[in-house]
Write a structure and sequence with these properties.
The chain has helices at 18-32, 42-61, 67-81, 87-100, 111-121, 133-142, 155-158, 165-174, 189-197, 227-230; strands at residues 6-9, 125-129, 151-154, 182-186, 202-206, 220-221. It is of the alpha/beta class. A 6-stranded parallel β-sheet has the order 3-2-1-4-5-6, sandwiched between helices. The chain binds magnesium ion. Residues 10, 12-14, 186-188 line the site of magnesium ion (MG). Magnesium ion binds at residues 10, 12-14, 186-188.
């Protein structure tokens, strides 16, 4: 008998292949702004950007910087690292990235077929994300996810970022779901798995690169085609 009645699932790096999509967008911008005149190659630029972006996202997650500051500063600081001080290029990359990146459509393998199978069973699929609404809506639309998503819940709508329990409480309430018949699937162990478990939702780690293979106690999947079998377990 199927016990699980609702699936909460993360978007970035779980369904939508954030790294591939982001890299494609940055490469386009690197060429548009002819950054090879200042930086050895794209790989060097990309690596530095990722470092700086990760630090700034952490600050944003803690509420220490705003969304707008995050979006601009990650490029301003990366450019500065390579000796470029240019408000024009900074603005171009800031705006260009926000426009371009969500239009990219790379998903993890088996995303659409797996969601289609869940839909056939009649399971509501609710995306719970710390990403920005106007961006996440474009990603869902362009990448073909829209027919399979019942609700998109963004942290900025609720005022709490995962792993704050309040976002998961809101997800349960708005979908009329119970914690013990729901699962939360996501790639971030702290935000998605531990966050959900704080309110009694069973957390499942999406771990496509097997970074957590030594942690036998964690429920995990490495491919989205495994989602269906999760529904049969008693947690
Ligand atoms: Mg994620």
């Amino acid at each position: 008998m199927q016990k699980i009645k609702t699936i909460f699932i993360d978007l970035d790096r779980t369904l939508w292949d954030f790294e591939s999509n982001s890299k494609e967008a940055l490469l386009e911008l690197f060429e548009v702004y002819q950054l090879k005149n200042f930086v050895k190659d794209f790989a060097t630029f990309h690596q530095k950007y990722r470092q700086i972006n990760a630090v700034l996202w952490e600050l944003y997650g803690k509420g220490k910087i705003t969304k707008d500051l995050l979006r601009r500063k990650r490029f301003e600081d990366t450019l500065f690292h390579f000796g470029i001080v240019s408000p024009e290029i900074t603005s171009g990359l800031t705006e260009g990235y926000v426009q371009l990146s969500p239009q990219k459509t790379n998903l993890f393998p088996n995303t659409l077929s797996s969601l289609a199978n869940l839909k056939k069973i009649g399971l509501p699929i609710i995306i719970v994300t710390n990403g920005f609404r106007e961006v996440q809506e474009i990603k869902i639309d362009r990448s073909g996810l829209a027919p399979f998503v019942d609700v998109l819940l963004c942290s900025e709508d609720v005022g709490y970022n995962k792993p704050d329990p309040n976002i998961f409480l809101e997800a349960l309430q708005m979908s009329n779901s119970k914690a013990n018949t729901s699962i939360m699937v996501g790639d971030d162990f702290q935000a998605d798995v531990l966050g959900a478990e704080k309110v009694g939702i069973h957390g499942v780690l999406f771990d496509p690169n097997h970074h957590y293979s030594h942690r036998k106690e964690i429920s995990k999947i490495s491919d989205l085609s495994e989602l269906e079998k999760l529904l049969l377990f008693n947690y």
